[in-house]
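Dear support,

I submitted the protein below through the web form. The confirmation email said the job was done, but the results page showed an empty box. After a refresh the structure appeared. I'm attaching both so you can tell me whether what I see now is the final result or a partial one.
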Amino acid sequence: MQPGGTKISVNSATGRRWRKRALEIAFWVLTIGFFWTVDVFTKLTDRQRTGIGLDDFRLFTQQATSAVAAMLMVYFVLYWCRQFPLLKNRLLPVIVGHLVGSVIFAVGHYALFVLFRLFVFRLNDMDYVFVRFNHIDNLVLEWQKDIKIYVAMVAIITVYRRFFGADERPSSSPSPQLSDRLMVQTGNGETIVRFDQIDYLEAARNYVVVHADEQEYLVRDTLGNLEKKLTGGHFARTHRSFIINLDRIAEIRPTDVGKHLIRLAGGAEVPLSRGYRNRFKSQLSP
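What the results page shows now:
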């Protein structure tokens, strides 16, 4: 592997996460777009049949702003599902939590689409009259419609996480640790990696890539937190983005630009930065 080769694994892990995130965003955009489009055609059909209904501008504007507001509220539902996961042993708190969540969702959805409509109508020199009765009555009506949307979103998120082991946002809590082991993510779920299997760890945005036995795993944690867990004196920080297993060192050599590279037994090369060089050398000393 070339001196810059270690960057490939970071890009690879980051690329996988971004592709996964892009697919998730595309799913929500297509799903919400589909159902709101169906609703538009239903309203157009009713207007043609009865002769009663909004004009095209108002109808399409209201449906589009409602759809965009719902897409933005997906982030709230994702967060709320992490706070109130559907667990059998916490049924009552989960039910209460999601009832509250459905109210927050309806209020947020209502506030967003009203703001969007005011903006769009103002751009077209038109007045948007958004109070049919009063705000409270409007919110009650909105909640009666939005609770179905909220429940559907919660169901989709729960099924997706359960079968694909997905989490949209890195957890701020420490990664599970079993003495000299780490719990890491795989393509099919999670597995346990022993410390002595690890070659090196590499920061990748809000994740850490664990290189062990010629495999790459992800941990939702920071390199600083993992450094505290890697006890026993067998690991050393060599760079702000790298921690290595000292038992895996094969060679340390200078580069043409006055820096140093550490070649590991498996062939990977990681940088040794000036800021960590003295501490690294002290850890190598008996």
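Response: this is the final, complete result; the empty box was a page-load delay. Residues 186 and 223 are 18 Å apart (CA to CA).
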